[in-house]
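Posted in: Protein Modeling Q&A

I'm a second-year student putting together a small comparison for a lab meeting, and my supervisor asked me to include a predicted structure for ANTAR domain. I've never done this before, so apologies if this is the wrong subforum. The sequence is pasted below exactly as I got it from our records. If anyone can share the structure token output, I'd also love a short note on what stands out.
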Amino acid sequence: MGAPPPLLDVLVRSVDTLTGDFDVVELAQQLVDACVALTGGGDAGLFVANHRGELRLLAATDERARPLVEAIDGPGRHTYRTGTRCVADDLSAAAVVWPDFARHARRQGYRSAYAVPLRLRTDRLGVLTILGRTSNALHRSQLRVAQTLGDVAAIGIAQHVLRPRVEPIGDRLPVALNDRVTVEHAQAVLAQRGDLTDPEAFDRLRSHALRTGRRLADLAGGIVAGTVDAGIVLTAPARR
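Accepted answer (user: helix_wrangler)
Welcome! Here is the predicted structure, written out as tokens:
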């Protein structure tokens, strides 16, 4: 396994991505992958609020993080409500505040949890969560790195959902989530056709999009609509 990419390299690639009709789901996936590599966290997930203020997954390194944020009160929801970072260095101690979250997270092998806000000026767009395999997994400098990545995600999401509109950003966040829903539908089609797990199906979908230069959501939409041959996508080599 190679050395993690320096933060500056990640930021340069992210800024380069924010041009033209960029792919917000792919950007989010790059950022959560980079978050784990740069902070040493076990897994990371990027969640965006829908029009009801409910957090919904946009990208994750492991989908097991999804119910821990979407369905259970914990650090992610706390950060979204308050707009401030949340640090739970020891989930055993955090069980006093978030018993359900701590119990479910520990069952999945996590021992610490962190969340930083996705923010744009005074608007709160969502959260970036990091789950650690050990207690005290992240230190202050690593949390600053996570916040930087969260800020890049917020800028990208805002650019994606607002251009060329002028409505309040909170009213437009479902646009980004719609892309994720389309990707998940295509992922299900590929998983069924190719007898793959969901992560394997997503990997094939993402690999084909990157190899052909297509937006992930556009490729997924073609698979769902039947205008893209799922068999061709299934032949895409797995990403390393």
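A couple of things worth pointing out for your meeting: The first strand starts at residue 43 and ends at 49. The first helix runs from residue 7 to 17.
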